[in-house]
Amino acid sequence: RATSVCSQRKLLVTRDLGPDTMSLLYAREDLEVVTWPEDRDCERSWLLDNVPGAAGAIVMVTEKIDEEVLERAGPNLKVISTTSVGFEHVDLQGLYRRKIRLGYTPDVLNNAVADVAVMLALMAGRLADQGVTLVKEGKWPAHNFGPFHFVGPQLSPVPSISTTRTVGFLGFGRIAQATLARLAAFGVTHCIYSTNPSSPHDRERDAALAEQLKLRAVARVDLDTLARDSDVLILLAPGGAATRHVIDEAFLRKMGSRAVLVNVARGTLVDSDALAKALREGWIWGAAVDVVEGEPQVGADHPLVREPRCVVVPHIGSATFETRLGMVRTAATNALAGLDEVDMPAELDV
Ligand code: DGY
Known about the structure:
With 350 residues, this protein is of the alpha/beta class. It has helices at 19-26, 44-50, 67-73, 92-98, 110-125, 128-136, 174-185, 203-213, 223-229, 249-254, 272-280, 303-306, 321-340, and strands at 9-13, 31-35, 54-59, 79-82, 101-103, 166-170, 190-194, 217-220, 232-235, 260-263, 286-289, 310-312, 347-348. The protein folds into two domains: 9-108 and 322-348, 3-Layer(aba) Sandwich (Rossmann fold), CATH 3.40.50; 110-312, NAD(P)-binding Rossmann-like Domain (Rossmann fold, 3-Layer(aba) Sandwich). The protein has 13 helices and 13 strands.
């Protein structure tokens, strides 16, 4: 809906946010709400054509908010509100230079993404994808109960056989800690993590987490140790230039042959060709990824999709009814707060 009253400020919305949230926006008579009309990702040309003069924009993770968009928008632009916790698609320097505020949606998706991280860890370890595919193709495996047929590494310990289990995290923010809490209930015994080396090491937090979750240790380690000692390694670090391909051939070669790698963060963290090679040549046991570099251009011929030991799902980490409703509401209230020049529920300091 777009009405034109001269004093109205334009709020661009690159995806219909659902009736509850859109009605919040439409209720504002001081705003002209201009919404991408289709039920698919907003086209760049539409964004460029409609952004001039906008005072605010609610965008998705699929829209690149770069110099070109900011220049086209012009001086009225006061707020970008992204419907995501990640913000790699937004040019922070460009925002900073223009004093444009940035809203995002942390916290509300922690549980949804942590659930998917555990799901993927289990699927990759226990060959779930291969099993489902065989059964759907009418190829229920014969001799399935040969003692070592269709086996994979177990996420939880087995008394007297394997008494320790170490989960590793690359990035140790709120989603990683929510994932750790779930894995503690599976009996994981140790947690190791690597994070931005310039961030302070919060030893008290780590000791408190270990005690609360009844783990033997929560320890910050270097990347070599993370690769070497993780039975399951879960990537939850931000994307962007600083972390691009941190999981490369050299890293993967250091991992254990029964280790499982899970990526629920950004595809750019992983060199896909190196991961496919690691799986093919058995340097690691399996992988499961919710994100792939270059998505959504990921066809059936993508090296990871072709790899039987790689589970690939299409960026569904936050895709639950409840979480997405929370995300769109936060995005809308962030945008309105930015336009009203008051505190946002969740603002990133750019
Ligand atoms: C995020 O919020 O950054 C997710 O990756 C998109 O759902």
